[in-house]
């Protein structure tokens, strides 16, 4: 069975303007929206996903030396509120949770089989000898992974790569879903 997923990165311009793009990967729907808060000091992430899945988003071009947040709503951990893993991966394999999480769970709501999660992290983060600050006005390499069932190996068809850019002037976030020619990814304008 093919796992197909829909990632939508919808980023709010500080104020009332909404810039939207969708990263389309397949038939199971997972949406991700992100924006800076009004202070430009915090990065908010909103994820809608099926329950009994885990979804990971990582800063880096591969799992080697990547800072990763994993939303774990699998049966093993889900009791109405997902487990948020603020992790680091030094090699390929399951990321190791950091001792202290910089992610704050703002909200988690369940509607049938769909879970919507709101997270926040500071833009500037330095810990364990690593600078995890989200830079402005430059290409940020990102990875993602997802899978139904137990949090662990995602499989080769349940992962991907995209780039992200945060504007210092507007706070808008844009991304390129297909920087390396992955045939499953496609950007299109999101419906408002």
TrEMBL record:
Transmembrane segments: none annotated. SUPFAM superfamilies: CBD9-like. Residues 26-149 form the DOMON domain. Residues 1-19 form the signal peptide. Keywords: Signal. It comes from the Eukaryota. InterPro entries: DOMON_domain. Pfam families: DOMON. The keyword Calcium does not apply. The keyword Signal applies. This is DOMON domain-containing protein. The lineage of its organism: Eukaryota, Sar, Alveolata, Ciliophora, Intramacronucleata.
